[in-house]
């Protein structure tokens, strides 16, 4: 291959692509193959460059033609479009755009090594190792991203082995880029080695050598970060030696260099939050944006640092608390996000989140005040002074702060939220003008919809229900009506006074939620005119996407008519399998479904989560026995104490178990884990909904233990 490193172009690559048309290549290629060189054939400098460029073009084209791209795959189907893109990098007026298109195809899904990636990467590596290829930094960054994604892929992927072999062959070329003459290339080159899966000792030594000699600070920051990433993969003795050398390199350096050094040091010993706070508050924090590590806004550096600190709760907590005391408003806002991230991973930081939120309620920056209000509402603080302050804010003008304060009061169990919720029910907008009622969002942090806030205030449903009923009676079909209907259904039998307006709602175009709400409040055929209910049910049953399970169960509960249930089931004596929907519906037959019990018991051990939830409840509804269904539901939960993050289906399983009154020794162990775990069982979800799911699971587990009696309430050792 003609060496791009030695060629210095007198024209743009696009210009030479135009110059080297079909005819030009036909004349030049024989000269190249004949070994024509400048000292043997006195052609002009520009022609000599053209000859070299033609040679490079021939070699690249030959390599591309050797690969059956149509038989390979990338994120969007077969890879027939890759050869044109790889050729165009050298001739495009905007090669960075072509690299972005390649990234979209080769990294798009993540955690995948596409078959096309295996063939494309060696070509990209050879391109970038040649000195004059355009967009070299962008290509190096792309290769680094591919290497990091490939490192996450397990050996079960067939292409993983092929990738590893090709990548290992090219690693020496990539390591050479650490000493490249182009500083932009050096700034991203260490990303290529950070996730290396082999030869880590040798690569670590090279990184340390170049880092000691590097004079460009962003490049050095990236190199130190790569050292930190490689360190866990080398022997303990090598780790100690590397840390000592890094300590010499960063001694007396800038705050950012010291923070990069701390990433290395914390691999072998604890590091406090101070070094990270010093760096994130310093003006030179912008240096990180020039590295391979954290492209993006200044706050992105904060979130990246927080993510790298991983399981180090105390340091992350100290980081968040320190950042919310910063003089910079954007940093304070980022600090609240860090605190919420920590709270979504561990239960105990909620006290710190509440304290930080309370202290920032008078912050001069509106975005910080919004974050503070959101944090204190999520925390469910039990401090009287916190509730008093929210009550004060709830009396303010219509807007985000008022609604957030009302939400916080409802979550705290403070009845001072009730008058304000009643005023919302009388106002033009539920919530406030820029807050969509349901299935909408506002600027982050997003407040819940009003029906969710009303559900938080269920303890005062008797005071709120008249306002909900009045609003519901005058509200046409749409988001707002659905929100109010969900509130009524959520309140259940306590909302029986809503019966007349729910019956009137059967005449609306989509009475699905009216029927479900009627069943939730305990309405029966004597309460609901069958002449309205039956046509409403038939009308919405044909609507695509309707909640058929909820609708049919609700209709059957009100009328006692099992016909719609039987229509969804195979005959009891047939060999036709029970569908997932049928497993949820058959229980609505009650004792009349006894012929299906044997099939349910046979199926339950091998069902997926959603089907098990339905089959277990149905078995209990038909037989009244808690054992078979309870054991199946408990089986869904047994791996929670092994680290599997909990999801909403686990909460549903717990609620079904509590409803059934089932308990056994294996379940008790999981229940105690849910009650006592310091780490949130839902994992680091980062949203208040995840925190709430975790708290509801812990509360439900405690109620099951309490109901099980004294023996179950003895915590296992």
Unreliable sequence segments:
1-58, 438-444
Calculate the mean pLDDT score and round it.
Answer: 86
What is the count of DSSP helices, taking H or I runs of 4+ residues? 38
Alpha-carbon distance between the two ends = 69 Å
Q: What quaternary form is this?
A: single chain
Strand order of the largest sheet: 1-2
Please count the beta strands (DSSP E, at least 2 residues each).
2
Describe the sheet with the most strands: 2 strands, antiparallel
- Described by the principal axes of the CA atoms, the overall outline is globular
The helicity comes to: 55-70%
The secondary structure category is mainly alpha
Share of β-strand residues: under 5%
Radius of gyration: 32 Å
Map the helices and strands:
Blueprint: H1 13-19, H2 22-33, H3 45-65, E1 73-74, E2 77-78, H4 82-91, H5 95-106, H6 115-129, H7 136-152, H8 158-176, H9 183-189, H10 191-194, H11 200-213, H12 217-230, H13 236-250, H14 255-265, H15 274-281, H16 298-309, H17 313-323, H18 329-343, H19 350-359, H20 366-378, H21 384-394, H22 400-412, H23 418-426, H24 450-456, H25 461-473, H26 479-491, H27 499-504, H28 512-520, H29 530-541, H30 548-559, H31 563-567, H32 580-585, H33 597-603, H34 609-623, H35 627-637, H36 648-660, H37 665-676, H38 688-708
Antiparallel strand pairs: 1-2
Helix pairs in contact: 2-3, 4-5, 5-7, 6-7, 6-8, 7-9, 9-12, 11-12, 11-13, 12-14, 13-14, 14-15, 15-17, 16-18, 17-18, 18-19, 18-20, 19-20, 20-22, 21-22, 23-25, 24-26, 25-26, 26-28, 28-30, 29-30, 33-34, 34-35, 34-36, 35-36, 36-38, 37-38
